[in-house]
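This part of the workshop introduces the protein records we will be handling. A record pairs a protein's sequence with a compact description of its fold. As an example, a complete record with its sequence and its structure tokens follows.

_____
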Amino acid sequence: MGSLVPYQVFWGERLQLAREFRGLTQQELGKKVAASAALISLCESGKKRSPAPDLVEACALVLGFAPEFFFVRLEDIFREEECSFRHRRSTPERMKSQIRAHATLIGMVIDRLRSLFRFPAIDLPHVAAGDDSEAIEKAAEHCRTHWKLGLDSPIMQVGRVMEHAGVLIVPHLVQSPKVDAFSRYGRTSVIFLNQIVTSASRWHFDIAHECGHLVMHPGIPTGTVETEKAADRFASAFLLPRRAFAREFGRGPLSWKRVFELKRRWFTSGAAIIRRAYDLGLISAVEYRHGCQYMSAKGWTRGEPHEPAFQKPELLAMALDGLGSKVSLKLDQIAKDLMFTPETFRDVTGISIPSVEQKSAELIQFRGRAIAQL
């Protein structure tokens, strides 16, 4: 295979990306390819621009990429300052690095698909709100108005709202209880969800929470108590607009029958509903605390009753489904273009490269409206 390795500039950032994607330290990768951690470090830092071809091939084989993968400039890295992790403070740095690396690889897939299909343009308002509750409420109301959602009605599919606004939803990347969700604002803006979360209402809240970061905190480091509280408040205001919610919730003793009626109508969790009622002064601190205690005793912190149906993200899956039907390029060619092995393509996208012809697709549509022409 040595003759296949191009004698060009070796891009160490790509080796670091592939290594972190596989969750390996420099020492662990070095052991697998019979190299020192110091040599791996030199390659990644760019201080060794021409590694031995056999070392490149060994790294490629272990990490699941073609050797040529390391000889192309890395155009769009998902950097730490661009990413917002839910529960970031308790998330190990190594795990966050692995998730960002995975996200960067998904970004490569999306970028390649953008050259074939027309995705919605980014349409995210930017509203600086700080930690002021009134400013956060107005930021959420501004987004509802901007996206023509109104201030009196439930958002039936919050993921679809974000994909209309050009933010792709990816459900399979995060697979750890230490991370509920994470988002990135940049050249490719994405919200990543945790597929091990079994609560649809929690998914809806996570999407709205990450929307809050994208709207209020672009370019601002997140993960602090203040930014997480602000994103939670935004999510509550976005999903449960204050005037309509207050009118429907009413006043008086906390009623679980009423809470679950509102849950079915507004597609949000009971926990989010009682928190919203407390924040708006509709129930007292005593009622709120007793409500949280009751939910914990019933086991609802692990899963509530009356969950809405899951709403699967659409854009990325439909674009991948369209390969080989409306465009001549197929999944296997996309993988080759990106210099991923078929196994790596599956690990990155969650989709296996089929050995049979794919079914045809017409348009990427939302409610009968074309979003991306295939």
Observations:
- Residues 77-239 form a domain with the Arc Repressor Mutant, subunit A fold (CATH 1.10.10.2910).
